[in-house]
Design a protein that fits this description.
Layout (H helix, E strand, L loop, with lengths): L5 H7 L7 E7 L2 E14 L3 E8 L2 E8 L5 H17 L7 E6 L6 E6 L5 E2 H7 L7 H16 L2 E2 L8 E4 L2 E4 L6 E2 L6 H12 L10 H12 L4 H25 L7 E5 L3 E6 L4 H17 L1 E5 L3 E8 L2 E8 L4 H7 L5 H15 L6 E9 L3 E10 L6 H6 L5 H21 L1 E2 L8 E4 L2 E4 L6 E2 L3 H17 L7 H9 L6
Antiparallel strand pairs: 1-2, 2-3, 3-4, 4-6, 5-6, 7-9, 8-11, 9-10, 12-13, 13-17, 14-15, 15-16, 16-18, 17-18, 19-22, 20-21
């Protein structure tokens, strides 16, 4: 097994091979720490990993920022110790030490095997009712934290760990505290940020969860309860704006590739080799794939990478004038990438985005662009509805799915831009939205109402004179817009 140094980790950024070993201090001697699996990495700063130490599995936080590793370890130790002192559930600290070369610091904590973060539970649950108990436990813990003057300003679902029917709070480095209970305004803003990370559909549970919160934190005034949903909405919009700013940067989920003739953002689930193959031979993949659309504006094909099927879309430039015009504008592929990630955050289904890239001239001037996404093997909605006689229960499921979609579009003030029935797929009782390059999020209510009305008119045109026209007309008539 390879031994790595802090210098190695700084060079490797996110691409850290496992397993590997490190030498760490043990009193006046040294011992070996075996890193089995990387759980999270912040390049150049921090690594959280499942490790083997003194004959048992443990979780280790390794702080290795060249200038701040001591300060960051001290802050995390202080926060975790504070949680323990105030009787709040968090994994126990087993040891804290430094690496053998004294260029990084560690905190070694107990490993709660077979538990999962709240984020993982919420993301993977097939039945959303299964998530209620761990969320309820988390709300009780947040209420207890606020009562004891403790909170995490950047509260998020990965900081809650569900283990043996109990919730544990992680990340002591982000813990803040005051003497006495947290002020109501700060406490409810913090709680709203927690709830903002769930789909809007989950809001039906908020009233009962506020009751649970009161059991630990104390009573909430009636006026605060009434304005609380607005606080959640504001927090959701802020999260969306934050995502908007980082969709073209390297993150835990995505990597960027930038050269003089390419700019790409690639999902890390797509292996680096596959990503580079597409970048260097996108046209070849499209020529060899099964054509789905061959238009002037765009070309779409099913392509195969490492025995998995995807959909690859090429945005064409139809003339020299368009080449000049789009050289200075964001590409339609980049908008599809950004909007797909945004829809995912909003809880709207769309084929998973894996890659977009732009051909460029001298780093800055854009040319053609490509967008790679999940291939959902199902008919588009128009073909699906024309190919069969739908039962009443099926058409109700489709109507309900569109009702939810329109509710979310109004909530977030987004317009699609091209609501043809062929731009939707209804598969396994889920509605998927396609063709996202014209989607917009509006700040001005007037322009949003105008854009959404155009969407709705185009949507109704799909069903004009058809069997289901009246059902869809009633659906559109039922849409509620805020005053």
């Amino acid at each position: 097994m390879a031994f790595l140094t802090i210098k190695d980790l700084l060079k490797m950024r996110r691409d850290i091979p496992v397993p590997f070993s490190m030498r760490i201090k043990k009193d006046i001697t040294e011992e070996t720490l075996e890193v089995k699996r990387v759980l999270r990495v912040v390049p150049g700063k921090r690594l959280t990993a499942l490790c083997f130490w003194r004959e048992k599995d443990v979780v280790v936080k390794l702080f290795f920022h060249p200038m701040r590793w001591e300060k960051n370890q001290s802050r995390d130790l202080f926060g975790t110790s504070l949680l323990l002192e105030r009787g709040l559930t968090t994994p126990l600290i087993l040891n804290d030490t430094v690496t053998a070369d004294r260029k990084a610091a560690l905190i070694i904590m107990e490993y709660l095997k077979d538990g999962n973060t709240l984020n993982y539970i919420n993301r993977e649950a097939k039945n959303k009712n299964d998530t209620y108990l761990p969320i309820e436990k988390a709300v009780l813990l947040i209420g207890e934290c606020h009562k004891k003057g403790v909170w995490q300003p950047d509260i998020h679902l990965d900081n809650f760990y569900f283990y043996r029917n109990e919730i544990y709070l992680l990340d002591g480095g982000d813990v803040k505290s005051v003497a006495g209970p947290l002020k109501d305004s700060y406490a409810l803003t913090n709680l709203a940020l927690f709830f903002a990370q769930f789909d809007v559909d989950f809001d039906i549970n908020i009233s009962s969860l506020l009751n649970k919160y009161e059991e630990k934190a104390g009573p909430i005034s009636e006026s605060a309860r009434c304005t609380f949903p607005l606080g959640i909405k504001k927090a959701r919009i802020k999260r969306l704006e934050k995502l908007w700013r980082k969709v073209f940067r390297s993150t835990t989920s995505n990597r960027i590739i930038k050269t003089s003739d390419r700019f790409a953002v690639c999902d890390r689930k797509l292996r680096e080799k596959e990503c580079k193959n597409i970048l260097l031979g996108a046209d070849k993949y499209m020529d060899e794939g099964a054509a789905l659309k061959a238009g002037n504006a765009s070309t779409v094909a099913e392509v195969t990478l490492n025995n998995a099927e995807y959909v690859l879309k090429r945005y064409n430039l139809k003339s020299t004038w368009r080449s000049v015009k789009y050289a200075f504008r964001s590409s339609r592929a980049s908008r599809s990438w950004r909007n797909a990630l945004a829809l995912n955050m909003m809880g709207i289904n769309t084929p998973h985005p894996y890659l977009f890239f732009e051909e460029r001239i001298l780093w800055h001037f854009r040319s053609r662009a490509f967008f790679l996404s999940e291939n959902i093997k199902a008919l588009n909605l128009l073909d699906y509805m024309n190919s069969r006689v739908l039962k009443d229960v099926e058409i109700k499921l489709i109507i309900d799915a569109f009702k939810r979609l329109f509710k979310l579009m109004v909530y977030y003030k987004i317009s699609h831009g091209d609501m043809k029935a062929t731009n939707f797929i209804f598969h396994e009782n889920k509605l998927f939205v396609l063709d996202l390059d014209s989607m917009n999020r509006h700040r001005n209510p007037y322009f949003f109402r105008r854009a959404i009305q155009k969407d709705l008119n185009r949507f109704l045109k799909n069903w004009a004179g058809g069997k289901y026209e009246s059902e869809f007309e009633r659906l559109v008539a039922s849409i509620e817009f805020p005053a």
